[in-house]
Design brief:
21% strand, 11 helices, 3 domains, D-Maltodextrin-Binding Protein, domain 2, 289 residues, alpha/beta, Arc Repressor Mutant, subunit A, five-stranded mixed β-sheet
């Protein structure tokens, strides 16, 4: 009987980390290994998979069809491995409450999956999640109503920890171009909003007139207004509805927008093990994005 080949877990983690970071050089830094050791691991993975997983693309590497298939399985294997390790080390006995606040971008994309994995690993921890605008979340942490919150920009909290940055992009219908004979119809949250501030600063810098065409307290409202053709908005590329497009500034006549900070706010009380664990998972997910 031919025994099945077991894929090395460390090799899978290197594979997933490199894809998530967009660079195996960055993966080497993250995992504390040399680039040559990473290369050996990737060759070992191809041998164990029995398939070519990478192909040249310009000066970098892209996944082959086999690589695309394997990355999905690799994520699931590592998630189960990490859940099992948490359960076996006694972390599943963790108890208490964690109160966390997030922007809608994350709550509608990857956070539900992370929360599900945390709940399975720590079934005795009760999580209260609040989705709101950044200013409201920062104030809730300051009042002690939330233990943790992630916001776009510091929201006036000088003690907030910057854990990542993301490019800010214009979002609109396919083929949108700026009509210089009319003010740009802008769809955005009311102030205070870090995205709105970034957009207005860029438009004023380029001397482009604008008008606030639509405001909504919800991200879904912004997407609906853009879909209806009322104007363009600006966010990050995460969670953009499939029928809308990230606009090329050069082709659309809009100014470049730079990057926006992601800030982590923490209450002044001492962190419980449950809060510290969810915070670590949250930072890992965001910095890998």
């Amino acid at each position: 009987m031919v025994l099945p080949v077991n894929i090395d877990m460390d090799v899978l983690r290197t594979f997933v980390t490199g894809i998530d970071l967009g660079s195996f050089a960055k993966a080497a830094d993250r995992l504390g290994r040399s680039p040559s050791a990473i290369s050996l691991q990737l060759r070992k993975l191809e041998e164990q998979a029995g398939q070519t997983l990478f192909q040249k693309q310009g000066r970098g590497l892209a996944l082959t069809e086999a690589g695309d298939i394997l990355i999905g399985y690799a994520r699931r294997i590592l998630e189960l491995n990490d859940e099992a390790r948490s359960a076996m080390t006694g972390l599943s006995a963790m108890q208490g409450w964690v109160r966390i606040g997030l922007p809608q971008d994350f709550a509608e994309t990857w956070f539900p999956g992370l929360l599900g994995r945390f709940a399975r690993a720590h079934p005795k921890v009760r999580v209260e999640a609040r989705v709101d605008r950044g200013s409201a979340l920062a104030q809730s942490v300051e009042r002690g109503d939330l233990d943790l919150a992630v916001t776009w920009g510091r929201m006036g909290d000088t003690h907030a920890q910057i854990i990542a940055t993301r490019p800010v992009v214009w979002i609109g219908p396919d083929g949108f171009t700026l009509d210089t004979s009319e003010p740009l119809p802008l769809i955005a949250f009311d102030s205070p909003c870090a995205f709105r501030s970034a957009g207005l600063e860029a438009l004023d810098r380029e001397g482009i007139e604008w008008r606030h065409a639509f405001a909504s307290p919800s991200l879904g409202g912004l997407w609906a207004a853009v879909t209806a053709g009322l104007g363009v908005t600006l966010r990050t590329a995460e969670g953009v509805p499939p029928h809308l497009r990230v606009l090329d500034p050069t082709a659309s006549g809009l100014p470049a927008l730079g990057r926006i900070e992601l800030a982590l706010h923490r209450s002044g009380t001492e962190q419980s093990p449950a809060i510290a664990q969810l915070q670590a998972l949250l930072i890992e997910a965001i910095t890998a994005g």
